[in-house]
Amino acid sequence: MMASHKSLLFHHIFLSVIFLCYGKDLYFNDNGNLILPGSYNIPWMAGIEDFRTLSLLTIPGTHNSMAFYGGPETECQVLSLKDQLRAGIRFLDLKVFGLFDTLYVMNGVMYQRSTFREVLDTVKEFLKEYKTEAVLIRVEPEFFEKTSVNEMVQTLIGDDEHVWVTSGMPNMGQIRGKIVFLQKSTFTLGIPLVNTDGKGTNEVSDLQDKDNRIIKQLSQATEACGGDNAILTYTSGTGLGTFWGMLLTPKTVAEQVDPWLNQYLRQFYPNQPRPCFGIIAMDFPGIDLIQTVINMNLS
Predict the structure, then answer these.
(1) What is the CATH number of the domain that holds 96?
(2) Cβ(58)–Cβ(276) under 8 Å?
(3) pLDDT tens for residues 220-230?
């Protein structure tokens, strides 16, 4: 136990030095007011060649993308959906609950003050302005009657040609300006999705152990890149439900993990080409961390 506390202390000191040198909000962000530099490249996918297969890209995403309400134990993001997209996020993680003819965006039992239709409208508006981009969406049905969510989403999108719902892996040219659905479990629209996280991956009682688990997950993602499935790694975590990490909320975990993740990914920058890591879904990512993930695609 003493060794674990020492490693945790070292971890905090190391990250404090990073924060003093660079400012933590470059990699971790809990400020809801997005301010982008004038030179910020919002439509970053314009630089991806049309022939590049989607499963060979490294894509920044958010975990529980709409989890804005419910208190520190459950909140995972601070930027609005519109601002997440403008900051470069291209994967959205949505938990939905179908009631009568409406799909509500949830986080556990907490309604996140948005319907799924409103999410789609926001994404479509973004793609109308930035036609070179594509936005991947994972829909995770919540509670009972999960199979009905599949049908309700299908009804909602109809025959929209700007939505990708087939299981074949597209190249970038085929999905520009489109929403791309990812299928898993009871949700069966779109490209098959594989998670790298195993049982207990989300539970955090030791931050260094969490870092090591993310390294293993990203290694698995690299091996699986380029196949017929989309590969997803969650870097998020919470100590709630564990004895030693009971004070670690999603935000406090992200505050430590996000700067570390940036440093970890930066070590691959001399590599040509850089490795593929698939989708990396994060809590409270800052714009510099998002840019680091994006730049993994640049040779």
Answers:
(1) 3.20.20.190
(2) yes
(3) 999 999 999 99
